[in-house]
Amino acid sequence: MAKQNLRQAIDFLYSCGLATSDSYMCHVLFCVRANDFVQAKRLQSHMQLHLFQPKVSFIHNHQHLHLFTKCGKLSYARDLFDNMTHRDIYSWNSLLSAYAKLGLVEDLHSSKALKILVRIQEDGFQPIQYSDVNALQACSKLLDLKLANGCGDNTFIWNAITGVYAKCGDIHRARWFFDQMTHKNVVS
Q1: d(C-alpha 85, C-alpha 151), whole Å
Q2: Rounded distance, CA 49 to CA 158, Å?
Q3: pLDDT tens by residue, 112-144
Q4: What is the extent of the structural domain holding 55?
Q5: In the chain, which residue ranges form alpha helices assigned H by DSSP?
Q6: Last residue of a domain, which of 86, 115, 147?
């Protein structure tokens, strides 16, 4: 019954045109509660059709984290993320954790997980411990040697890897990465 009502509500949106931000937010929450990916995708299409860009990331984060990734629709989540005009640390963390939680590290690869950490900082956000743990989960599923070979001589990435292992309490791996660094700086 709830899914049928949700479908009818989305149908009504299509007949009315552009909706308000509050209306979209309510519809997103209904989609999440109903766990209805089909209607969430229709809602996303409606927003794109009317060039609606939320001023805050809440709407996209709920579609991205709570529904698209929950339903295993990572390509939709990634597309939504790539087209977000407003990202926050929650957006970044949800993308990173989605790859790790869905076991799709092969699609992300270790060097990309670390590049996400770099992009978080380039976008002006300070990664939180959750970000580091998600990157570590993604990276730890691959061989450390493969990870180290993918980093080249980028001291920033080597420092990030070493820091992630240290923050997560794996001092032996942190020390191994520190010892492998060809160019150390004050941060190292």
Answers
A1: 29
A2: 43
A3: 666 666 777 777 766 665 565 566 655 555 435
A4: 1-86
A5: 2-16, 21-34, 37-49, 58-61, 74-82, 89-101, 105-108, 110-122, 129-140, 144-151, 155-167, 171-180
A6: 86
